[in-house]
Specification:
single chain, mainly alpha, Growth Hormone, Chain: A, disordered C terminus
Length: 439
């Protein structure tokens, strides 16, 4: 197989003190990507607020509001698996340039329609679906590209920093979007979101491909000669036959399905259970974000190679904390518990993501990440529907307790069957490049 020889970059000594949390930013390629994503992520969160505001102005219907959100989430269930094939077949830098440019065009069209006074509700539906499609195709490439930029030594730090960035955007973006709408109107918000894509596109364009750590497949390689279905099947077969990958994806995906849906129940807890009203709901929501951000920064600072045992312990602790929160009737205790739930959820999810990227060969990374996106990200909308249905039948506390108990069962089953996965993840050969042409 013809390959590009990656640049030989000397090992970097770890930073000291708090600077250890930003070790991977010393690498130019990741620094360009990370700072570009910082601005773009803020813009995306502002757009979510702006779309919700527009739908309410046009329809005053909560159902229509949920429909727009669902249209952005549905493509993950159907198209993310194909995004992994693209990420392994073509240079991931190029795939990201295309998907980010497509997302910018979608934002630009939305701004033009709004600025010209021609926006209709069906436009929002179509554009939300297109944004979901580009996101589902770009996410596998984005996550697989991290290991290319930083290598395996700094991978835990880079994954955690990327997660911290997303969490920070979720905390700051909606508030900033609300301020912009109040000060300048929703039209200005969508213009700023369009412009926010320029830094990440410029950062991707400036990345030096010869400094990437992973070995790039050339057009004449075996993967390039296979059709999409064959490539997809090989990725799924690898997941199915690799104990470490299969255990992490199934356990974490199911725990997220049953347990990572507490946000949809927090308004009910605040009003009907803890009797703290809108202010209490705001603090509960903020506590989950703060807990997740602290977790991501802690993982970035530690920069330790994850283990199967660590992932499973994280899921067990997460489910236990969520069960205690479900039965708590003391507001301050609930505030601490929900922050801890956010902390542990971020921890086990990021440890799982890093584990998958660590044990997977470079040529399969995009397809494994696409399965991860399907099970991790795709489980959230289904979990929201499940919790909403259970809450309607039994009330919010019982619904969350049921979800937590199911999560405990899944995590417990994973703990019982962890030995083959731990043995598989410990094989040093899995970190070596596999000659794909001989397969």
């Amino acid at each position: 197989m013809s390959i590009e020889t990656p640049a030989i970059i000397p090992p970097r000594p770890p930073g000291k003190g708090l600077l250890r949390a930003f070790t991977s930013l010393r690498q130019r390629n990741f620094r360009l990507f990370w700072f570009g994503q910082m601005i773009s992520s803020m813009g995306t969160m502002m757009q979510i607020i702006g779309e919700a505001w527009l739908v309410l102005e046009l329809t005053h219907s909560p159902w229509q509001l949920g429909l727009v959100g669902a249209l952005q989430a549905v493509p993950i269930l159907f198209f993310s698996i194909c995004g992994g094939v693209f990420a392994d077949r073509w240079p991931r830098q190029r795939v990201l340039l295309v998907t980010q440019s497509a997302a910018m065009i979608q934002a630009l069209l939305l701004w033009i329609l709004l600025a010209t006074g021609t926006l209709q509700l069906w436009h929002l539906y179509v554009l939300a679906l297109l944004l979901g499609l580009t996101s589902s195709l770009g996410r596998p490439a984005s996550r697989a590209f991290i290991v290319e930029m930083v290598g395996r030594e700094d991978l835990p730090n880079a994954v955690a920093l990327n997660s911290a960035l997303s969490t920070l955007a979720r905390i700051v973006g909606p508030g900033l979007g609300g301020i912009i709408i109040a000060a300048s109107g929703v039209t200005m918000l969508f213009l700023l979101n369009t412009l926010s894509f320029l830094p990440v596109i410029a950062g991707l364009a400036l990345i030096k491909s010869h400094e990437l750590h992973a070995q790039a497949l050339q057009p004449g390689s075996a993967l390039a000669r296979r059709n999409t279905w064959q490539s997809l099947r090989e990725g799924v077969d690898y997941v199915w036959k690799t104990p470490a990958v299969l255990l992490v994806i199934l356990v974490v995906g199911l725990v997220l399905l049953f347990g990572s849906n507490f946000n949809v129940l927090l308004p009910l807890f605040s009003t009907n259970v803890l009797h703290m009203g809108a202010t209490g709901f705001g603090f509960l929501s903020a506590a989950t974000g703060v807990g997740a951000l602290l977790s991501a920064l802690w993982l970035a600072w530690s920069n330790q190679r994850p283990t199967i045992r660590g992932v499973l312990i994280g899921t067990l602790v997460f489910a236990g904390l969520e069960a205690i929160f479900a039965v708590s009737r003391i507001y301050l205790l609930s505030l601490v518990l929900i922050a801890s739930v956010g902390f542990t959820e971020e921890a086990f999810a990021m440890l799982a993501l890093t584990t998958l990227q660590t044990v997977t060969p470079d040529y399969l990374s995009g397809r494994v990440m696409s399965v991860q996106v399907l099970f991790f990200d795709g489980s959230l909308p289904l979990g929201y529907l499940l919790m909403g249905w259970l809450a309607g039948l039994f009330g919010a506390p019982s619904a969350m307790l049921i979800g937590a108990l199911f999560s405990l069962l899944v995590a417990g089953a994973g703990w019982m069957w962890r030995k083959p996965a731990e043995k598989d993840a410990a094989e040093p050969a899995r970190l070596m490049h596999v000659d794909y042409q001989n397969r």
